[in-house]
Amino acid sequence: MLSFPVYNRGLVYHKVSEKLELGLTTTTPTQFKTQMLALKRLGFMFSTIDKNNPEMHQIMITFDDGYSSIMDYAAPILDEVGGVATVFAITDYIGKKNSWDYFTKDKQVDHMSWGHLRQLKNLGWEIGSHGRSHKRMINLSIKSIQDELESSKKEIEDKVGAEVSTFCPPFNAWNSELLLLIEEAGYNKVAISYPLNGLPNWAGEFIPRQGVYLHDSMPLFLAKLFANPLAPIAVLQQQIINLVGNGKILENWLKHSRA
């Protein structure tokens, strides 16, 4: 065990795949396995968000968007180390390509099917909601937000057969008004990016997470968990990558508005 104190217990991945892309959010199977083995050697136990016990030495592995590569690569590796995870599914895109993203059609990849999500649930994984459409929800009307929150929760519960208590706002875009609507929709936990400053008061529980990226070396990976000189760099890196992601949203909006 490292002597540095643990300041963060949530990690967020997107794709775990041998097929690389221009973005930074794909982790190779070799990288992922090395990271999971390192966590196990450090004495971490793996937990889903809904069953996490803050008093125990647990780590929460999470996957945003629910890509099929999770089933192909990440799930077998986690099973090998005795781990489970939380997946945030986009219900309108279950079993479909990620056409919501900015990639051209030939670069789009598959999301997991409902059958895959049920398999993971039966392995002890948690299936949370990432909304219906992966839209930046703070820009939507109250009625649209309520639909995103309520219909995605109900559909996952109906088709996977497990209660959905955790929500992950797309693009890490949230505010106090959205938090109130999330609570009213029946969620009690919100998974967010690790913040640069304090969090507002809210009746539910925030789950801060650090993103893991293709270029992360082992020292930078460990800095996402342990307080050390590299930790501020890891937090700042995530904030910059989030801003770039939001820039892609603007770029996409401008492209369509000019068409």
Give the number of helices.
7
**Structural class estimated from helices and strands:** alpha/beta
Query: Could you say what the CATH architecture is?
Result: Alpha-Beta Barrel
- What distance separates the N and C termini? 56 Å
Count of strand segments: 10
The low-confidence parts are 247-259
Counted up, domains total: 1
Task: Give the H and E element order.
Answer: EEEHEEHEHEHEHEEHH
Cα Rg:
17 Å
What report would you give on this structure?
The protein has 259 residues and is α/β, with parallel strands linked by helices. Strand 8, helix 5 and strand 9 (189-193) form a beta-alpha-beta unit. The protein is built from 7 helices and 10 strands. Mean pLDDT is 91; it is low at 247-259. The radius of gyration is 17 Å and the shape is globular. The protein has a single domain (10-258), classed as TIM Barrel (Alpha-Beta Barrel), CATH 3.20.20.370. Strands 1, 4, 5, 6, 7, 8, 9 and 10 form an 8-stranded parallel beta sheet that branches. Helices cover 37% and strands 15% of the residues.
Structure at a glance:
By secondary structure, the chain is an alpha/beta fold. The protein has helices at 29-41, 68-80, 114-122, 142-160, 176-184, 218-222, 231-258; strands spanning 10-13, 15-16, 26-27, 45-46, 58-65, 86-89, 126-129, 166-167, 189-193, 205-211.
